[in-house]
Every structure is written in structure tokens, then in C-alpha cells.
Amino acid sequence: MLRHVTxxxxxxxxxxxxxxxxxxxxxxxxxxxxxxxxxSTATELGEHLGETPANCSWHLRQLxxxxxxxxxxxxxxxxxxxxxxxxxKGTQWGSPEDSAEMAIAGREVSDAMLAFExxxxxxxxxxxxxxxxxxxxxxxxxxxxxxxxxxELQAIDDTIxxxxxxxxxxxxxxxxxxxxxxxxxxxxxxxxxx
Length: 194
Description:
Blueprint: E1 10-12, H1 16-22, H2 25-37, E2 40-41, H3 42-49, H4 53-65, E3 69-71, E4 83-86, E5 90-92, H5 100-127, H6 133-137, H7 150-165, H8 169-172
Parallel strand pairs: 1-5
Antiparallel strand pairs: 2-4, 3-4
């Protein structure tokens, strides 16, 4: 049973350039790192990701241009090295009325995000045996096929979204994270079978 569902503001993307700004693998890694690490500079992010600070800085500016991240102005800058933070908003795209260009951009960002998530899942499998036993057994992968109506599929999506959002405040407020909590990647999709 759900205890409490926090709403996260959502941006509805209708500009294919905005979607393509998110589709780059380095940019997805930067957004992910800012969510996990909190406000960070291009140098700190470069060290974390194995990228050059200059490359990170360029990609951070592109993400900022479209509002995915912003400067963390309350934190001190160190010379030209300023901290950035994730803007906590969901991103939604994809409509039957979309232009062909928007549909292509949507597929590009979806493909990039799923490739990133699959890479993270595979990296987990590589390091799992070094984790404490409870963390080795709690993670899961589920797969199924079900015969559903569009209404039932939407209800599953709504339920999963509510579960994801149940602890959304923990993304931006470390004081709400219980002892022993770790960031956990959650991915789900429901698509008609071929």
C-alpha cells in the first residue's frame, strides 16, 4: 500500500532539439551523476565519469540551455569552475500528433536512455558478488507478457509511477533518506508484443 506520493513537476517536451540535447551518452551520465552526487563542478564530474573537465563543461552548458540543469548559485564557485545541479523535473514526450522530426528525436533519446540503463544493470551484475548479502538478494529483474486493454496498461503505468514517486523527495533532500538507503535504478516499460 502506498504511504505518500510526491508529485514531481514534469516538463512536456515538444522541441526535438531539446530532446536531442538529452540523448547524448555523456549528457545522460552527467544528469545521472548530478542526481546521485548533488551539486558538482565540471572538474568533479569529469573525475567521476572519466571525462575531461572541458568536455563536461561543454555538455553541462548544453543541458543548462534546455533547463535540465542549472548553476548552483548558492554554492561558491572556484575561479571559473562553478557548481551545477540537476533541476528536479520529470521529462515527458511523445504524442500521436508529433512531427516526424519529434518522433525521431523521441526514439533517439529513448534508445540512449535504455542503452545507459542496460549498461548500468550489466555493471551491477559484474560487481554484485562484492556486495553485502542483503544487497545481493534485494535487486530484481522481472519480465512477463500479459493480455491487457489500453486502460489496464495505463493503470499499470500509473501504479508504477506512484511507486517511483513515493520517495521522490529523497532525490533532492538527503535528510529524508533512511539509514542504509542507497540509490537504486528503477526502469519499466510496457509495450505491445510483436
